[in-house]
Amino acid sequence: MEKRLFTLFLFYATTIFATDDSPRTVFFDSIEVQYRKEIVECGDNIAYMSKTGITQWKEHMISVSQTPEYKALLQEYRKFVDSSNTPLPCKVLAWNEQRKQIQLQKEDSLTKELILREDYENALREKDSLPKSVFDPFGIPFEISKRSFLLLFKEKCKNAYVDMGYHLYVSDMNWCNHEYLTAFYFDHKTDKFIKYEIESDAVEADKLNRITRQDGENLTQCLIPNFGLPSKTFRIGFFDIKSNALSPLSMWDADGFNVYVGLSMSKYRYFAKAVVSRSEDHISP
Question: By mean pLDDT, which of 50-64, 96-110, 144-158 is the weakest?
């Protein structure tokens, strides 16, 4: 300890009294180079560090290395990391800080996991408390809170979704071996789940009969196994398809729900869409 401090004292004195061609200057220049290498290894910025600053940095490292806390830490470092060399104190301190951060991340992850588990259990209780229907997507009932919907949805479906606030959508959800844009809607006041829509790709008018009408038929057939046969079906002519309105192909009569498949257009591009929603007069306040 005394030897290292004496070396520092001489190094500092050299910055004041030594001449450029002094042998002592050459000697302490080599020490400066060594200290600067250590500083670089420690990741500190030496671009604007004077010899006085270097001396103070080294004094701090020596002071730290003499504390009982550091000596105990050094034993742990040698046990778990490297016992073959004497590390720079900054390396040991950085290792300890990293270890603390990892532990904090583990604790934070565990806390989030416990919160998520509690939220999931609450979601299951909420699900069980609500009435069930054949129209529930993936067994998730209408009027469930958005928070609970998301937890149950992520368990049932692995698709990535985009959350837009009062609705979220999946661009490529599989329905009966066809991928469709699917959107789920939530009430603006209560944040409860109230509707979902399944929509095909929009195509030009010359593809209406070949693609869009087939998509409408596919959606109808996809819903029949769960919903039963539609109560009404309709023939839709080309001029029956209106912009921003859904001309129904098939409808299901169901108390408390609006369920239908239809065709629509937007900017002269045609698409099929299935809509399943809770009737407004059946939505709880």
Answer: 96-110
In Å, how far are 117, 122, 185, 188 from 152, measured between CA atoms?
12, 11, 15, 20
Q: Quick one: pLDDT at residue 9?
A: 46
- The two tokens of residue 146 are 């958005």
Which amino acid type is present at position 76? Answer: E
- Rounded to an integer, what distance in angstroms lies between the CA atom of residue 90 and that of residue 258? 68
Decide: 263 and 241 in contact? Cβ < 8 Å. Answer: yes
Quick one: pLDDT at residue 84? 75
> Residues 252-258: contacts with CB within 8 Å, 24+ apart?
252/223, 252/227, 252/228, 254/133, 254/135, 254/227, 255/282, 256/133, 256/282, 257/133, 257/135, 257/282
**Separation between Cα atoms, residue 59 and residue 70, nearest integer Å:** 15
CA distances from 213 to 123, 132, 219, 278 (A): 38, 31, 10, 26
Q: What's the 3-state SS for 88-114?
A: CHHHHHHHHHHHHHHHHHHHHHHHHHH
**pTM of the predicted model as reported, rounded to 2 decimal places:** 0.61
Give the pLDDT of residue 238.
92
Give the DSSP letter of residue 200.
P
Tokens of 14: 């050299």
| pLDDT-derived band at 20, boundaries 50, 70, 90 | low
Q: Dihedral of CA 207/209/212/214: which sign? A: negative
Q: Which residue has the higher pLDDT, 106 or 126?
A: 126
Rounded-to-integer distance, Cα 10 and Cα 270, Å: 86
